[in-house]
Amino acid sequence: MWSGRFRQPLDPSFERWQRSFPFDRRLLPHELDASRAHARALANAGTLSGEELGSMLLALDEIGRRASASPQYLEDGEAEDVHHFVEKELAALIGDLGYKLHSGRSRNEQIATDLRLYVRAAIDHLQEALPDLMEVLLAQAEAAGQAAMPAYTHLRRAEPVLIAHWLLAYVEMLARDIERLTDCRKRVNLCPLGSGAVAGTTIALDRAAIARELGFAGPTANSVDATGDRDFVLEFSTATCLLALHLSRWAEEMILFSTQEFGFLDLPEAYSTGSSAMPQKTNPDLLELVRGKAGRLVGNATALMGSMKALPLAYNKDLQETQQPLFEATDTMSALLPLVTACMRAVRFDYGRMQSAAASGFMNAWAAATYLVRQGVPFRRAHEQIGNAVAYCLQRDCQLADLSLDQLRQFNSCFEQDFYSCLTLESVLGIHDVPGGTAPGQVQVALASAKRRLASMRGLAHAHA
Q1: What is the mean pLDDT of residues 82-106?
Q2: Distances (CA, A) of 188 to 118, 123, 185, 226
Q3: I need a labelling partner for 50 at 20 to 30 A (CA). Which of 1, 339, 386, 439 fits?
Q4: Does the pLDDT value for residue 461 go beyond 90?
Q5: What span, in angstroms and rounded, lies between the C-alpha atoms of 50 and 43?
Q6: 354: Cβ–Cβ under 8 A, 6 or more apart, which residues?
Q7: What mean pLDDT comes out for the span 379-392?
């Protein structure tokens, strides 16, 4: 495509090494779509006749048909990249007319367009898959009803919460992930075609019409930026990285809570494996791989930033290195989400054990301090006095509710008989009666709100489909 200037052949090893077709051939559907739009724009500008346009569109359709019919069709040892492959195949099908398609365009804008189309499709796919996982989490939250569990800070039991409240925390994370992808899509959805190599096309193409045909919101505003920009790749990769981090946190808790030491839940055997040596083992392989894949996605985002750092404007071959991290991030997350969703659907919680754990371990201590605050005691004083009472209980291997009024009044004379009712699990849960808190009424409100948001997010995904 560019050999006219050169008088020496490329070193064969370098020529093979610098090809991107082995991995960018997955962009072929997008390359064909963009090529059809460019061909129509050329015809509208008078560069192609109607007959030439018809022949070119038929040939582009034939390339797509052959690629779909046979994977071997894409085993091309000569194509430098996906753009070169399409041009070669066009020439083979319609002769020199195939070379006219490159009039007024550059590979720099082609790859920028193909990648935007790819990222947009990847976002739409994830926005269809994420609500399925949210729906499963909401179903598990509803099934848990009023059952409670310990909430942890510093991996130590802190306060009781409803199991539904804990599960809704992950729903919130996933909702933010969808919002990030939605926001990213707005910046992705601009069309570089017509930018040329760096300064804009040399043919008066209707860039707005090209953008409309490809479903973009409009054309990019600056040809230098459009051909050298990969912010949208990095932004999408970072969004998938955050999603992977959220899933890794979920996986870690599921691993911990399924151990014999916790015993809060049973993991489905369909997503576990055994030990080659120890017959009794069931290992949480899916969860461990989810945790491990997060590291790879963090690495992909870091690699992208490294490739983009200090690049001068506009296109540089370094940008070729942004493709494989993008493809791997997309493939990993696309494969991961359905498995995570199916696994979470099959998880079974031991509500009795979780409820029992929520009712022990002095997790009613803050509620006890709040009782004193309501008697007019400054919180710092109340905190110290209940802390002393807890230490007293630990020496005697008992709970706060086991102390008599006389024993309690050693720490503060304000204690009365109604103190004991504030220590029950129901009372401790109910005291957190603020929006976003774990009081049962507030959790019901949060569940209803999450369902409404889920419905709107599904609507968003369907709108892009």
Answers
A1: 97
A2: 10, 10, 5, 11
A3: 1
A4: no
A5: 7
A6: 147, 148, 149, 150, 163, 264
A7: 97
Residues 225/128, Cβ–Cβ less than 8 Å: no
Asked if the bond preceding 359 is cis, omega within 30° of 0, the reply is no
pLDDT (mean) for 225-242: 97
Encoded tokens for 293: 């894949």
Q: Taking Cα atoms as reference points, which of 335, 328, 337, 331 lies closest to residue 302? A: 328
Average pLDDT of every residue of the chain:
95
CA 308, distance to chain mean position in Å, is 22
Q: What tokens appear for 276 in the block?
A: 């080659």
Measured distance CA(2)–CA(218) in Å, rounded: 30
Tokens read off for 207: 């860039």
* Second-level CATH architecture of 360-445: Orthogonal Bundle (1.10)
> pLDDT band at 5, cuts 50/70/90?
low
CB neighbour class for 62 (10 Å; exposed up to 12, middle 13-18, buried from 19): middle
Question: What's the pLDDT score for residue 460?
Answer: 75
Q: Where are the domains positioned within the chain? A: 14-103, 108-201+215-357, 360-445
Question: Angle at CA 448, nearest 5°, toward 122 and 347?
Answer: 65
Q: What is the pLDDT of residue 448?
A: 98
154 catalytic, yes or no? yes
Q: Tell the residue number behind the tokens 């409404």, with chain if given.
A: 452
C-alpha triplet 28, 30, 31: angle, nearest 5°: 60
pLDDT at 418: 96
Full-model pTM = 0.94
The residue from 49, 68, 70, 275 that is catalytic is 275
Q: What is the pLDDT of residues 108-137, one digit of tens each?
A: 999 999 999 999 999 999 999 999 999 999
Determine the average pLDDT of the residues in 224-235. Answer: 98
Angstrom distance (rounded) from CA 241 to CA 333: 9
DSSP states along 46-103: TSS-HHHHHHHHHHHHHHHHHHHH-GGGG--SS-SSHHHHHHHHHHHHHGGGGGGGGT
- 108-201+215-357: CATH number: 1.20.200.10
Nearest partner of 371 among 424, 310, 306, 313, judged by Cα: 424
Right CATH number for 14-103 from 1.10.3720.10, 3.30.70.20, 2.30.30.30, 1.10.275.10? Answer: 1.10.275.10
Report yes or no: 284 and 267 within 8 Å, Cβ to Cβ.
Answer: yes
Q: Which of 3, 13, 154, 276 is catalytic?
A: 154
Q: Taking the mean position of all CA atoms in its chain, how far away is CA 312?
A: 30
Query: What's the token pair of residue 45?
Result: 């500008």
Interatomic CA distance for residues 223 and 79, integer angstroms: 27
